[in-house]
Amino acid sequence: MTTTTLATTARATRPLTAADLTAHRGAFTQFLGDVWVLTRRSIARIRREPETLSDVTIQPVMFVLMFAYVFGGAIGVPGGGSYHSYLIGGMLGMSLAQTAPGTAVAVVSDMETGLIDRFRSLPMSRAAVLTARTIADLLTQVIGAIAVALVGLAIGWRITGGVGHAAEAFALALLFGYAFTWAGVCLGMVLRSAEVAQQAGFIIFLPLTFISSAFVPTQGMPGWLQPVAEWNPMSSLATACRQLFGNPNPANAVRAWPEQHPELAVICWAAAMLVIFAPLAVHLYRTKAR
Amino acid sequence: MSDTPAIEAEGLVKHYGKTRALNGLDLRVEQGTVYGLLGPNGAGKTTAVRVLATLLRADDGQARVLGQDVASQAAGVRRLIGLTGQYAALDEYLTGRSNLIMIGQLSRLTGKAARRRADELLEQFDLTEAGSRAVKTYSGGMRRRLDLAASLIGHPAVLFLDEPTTGLDPSARALMWDIVRQLVADGTTLLLTTQYLDEADQLADRIAVIDGGKVIAEGTPGELKASLGGQRLLITLAEESDASAAAAALRPFTTHPVSQNGGGQILDLPVTAADGLATEVVRALDAAGVKVTDIAVRGASLDDVFLTLTSEVAVG
């Protein structure tokens, strides 16, 4: 039955003409076009399965509530101020950085299903696949940042440093998150399965977020651990956000360079990660044999 | 242009650590033909396809697709080829139609042309109804068809099909075969890998049997069968007959090893057909004191070719 369908309709195809092809477009236009097509693919996935956003919505909301109401009472903020207001600057960085394991998992599963092989066999831009992945993840990070801000407002966090500074804080947080996304892409390119990617993400990102000033002031940590926490990029972001939002900021009293110049530190960290991980990811994409 | 082979490979070598996945592979595929790469698992079929489709760089040797070098002119090669791998390379969460449109646009079609081609292909592959559903709801056969449709969206001149029917049930397999025949009728050059002999026999104009990363036999299905004498003799011995004495008596009739099946009582050997062959064989066995229950002559199948060739390599 199906066989006859095939035989009768196969001739209906019309050959492609030059007008059907985009071959005349320049390389950069092609790149943008490919990025757009693939970013739409990731957005379509989110629209079909909105629960994939739980990582950046439900999870940070739970974290905020637990830290605020379970640990919050036991953590004193040196120099005074409410822990609820202190918390949000740190939570913003955590919720954005922790999308990186998700990025890794998405890359691994595209490798596993052979979709990346297919892309590599097409006459498309080499850098587009990974760039589109990071842009789609940046969009989910925007949603995550909004979720953290909303739950923050609900527990009493306020922006007192002016709208311009607040916008700068969100921009820094997203730049930081975007840089992490490229680290996630590299992780995905070198790991063999989604389970391993999940594990590795956990192992890397858990200490990264907790050995920092994201949730507790570094002053309470043992002396040997303090420099690690002070130089942790997560601390720089948390401190930068607290400063810009006008929230309690005990890191004012910390002499380490990144805590004294948190905005510059965030920009340096993000730039360093982008310079290392973006070219590395594209290199792995070109050469990786499976 | 039409004299340029669709695919040419010379001395391809690819190592994975100490394993030589390709060990001096040579191929020549003419335009508009179906070429079968036949071999057991691990013979190097997939590696060969990956090198030819620009996914993998060979350590040595060179290969061209329609005259373009797969290493130095990879971008040009990618404009000419379509690839359908062993696993359906699709986005599970998109609909079938969205997958095709996406691959079409990435294959350098305009949005409009990609949508038109997607609808044509969905109809052609009997997926029009399924086209609006997410791929994760598809059966194995539907995925393979959609995957093949995706590799055809830009009208590739050369199509690589890596084990297109592995894991499919017989009816889905028959449908894939019909689709492949249709493609050939449209003039597409096809390189097909398979571990199924009947598939190569059914579809391919020429076949390369590969094992250990190189071609160990090459020709049309008919030539390959003929190279083993074209005929096989099956002799069932009476119980308690001496099989090794029988095998010794049969040795003059064949240039290949005599194989023993059915607990040693069935002897199987490739022979060149000739008048009076069966009579001479019975006489020779009688002289050796062997009693025969049954004797039959049948045409060699590609299975015979395959088993003979691969076992010779294994022994040698």
Explain what this protein looks like in three dimensions.
The complex is a heterodimer of chains A (290) and B (316). Chain A has helices spanning 2-9, 27-48, 58-71, 83-97, 100-112, 115-121, 128-155, 163-190, 194-210, 226-231, 233-245, 257-260, 262-287. Chain A is mostly helical and 290 residues long. In chain A, helix 5 (100-112) packs parallel to helix 8 (163-190) and helix 5 (100-112) runs antiparallel to helix 9. The radius of gyration of chain A is 22 Å and the shape is elongated. Chain B is α/β, with parallel strands linked by helices and 316 residues long. Chain B contains eleven helices and 14 strands. Chain B has helices at residues 45-52, 74-78, 96-106, 111-124, 140-152, 170-185, 197-203, 221-226, 243-250, 277-287, 302-315, and strands at 7-16, 19-29, 34-38, 60-65, 68-69, 81-84, 158-162, 189-194, 206-211, 214-219, 230-237, 259-261, 266-272, 292-299. In chain B, strand 1 and strand 2 form a beta hairpin. Chain B starts with 6 loop residues before the first strand and ends with a helix. Chain A binds chain B through residues 2-3, 5-7, 9-10, 12-16, 19-23, 30, 33-34, 37-38, 41, 44-45, 48-49, 113-115, 117-124, 289, and chain B through 50, 53-56, 75, 78-79, 81-83, 85-94, 98, 102-103, 105-110, 112-113, 116-117, 120-121, 123-126, 134, 150-151, 154-155, 174-175, 178-179, 182, 186.
Number of strands of chain B: 14
Order of helices and strands of chain A: HHHHHHHHHHHHH
User: Whole-Å distance between the termini of chain A?
Assistant: 39 Å
* Cα-based radius of gyration of chain B, to the nearest Å: 23 Å
Structural class of chain B: alpha/beta
Largest interface: A-B, 39 and 51 residues
Helix content of chain B: 25-40%
Beta-strand content of chain A: under 5%
Number of strands of chain A: 0
Q: Can you tell me the overall shape of chain A?
A: elongated
Number of helices of chain A: 13
Q: Output the strand order for the largest sheet of chain B.
A: 6-7-8-3-9-10
End-to-end distance of chain B:
41 Å
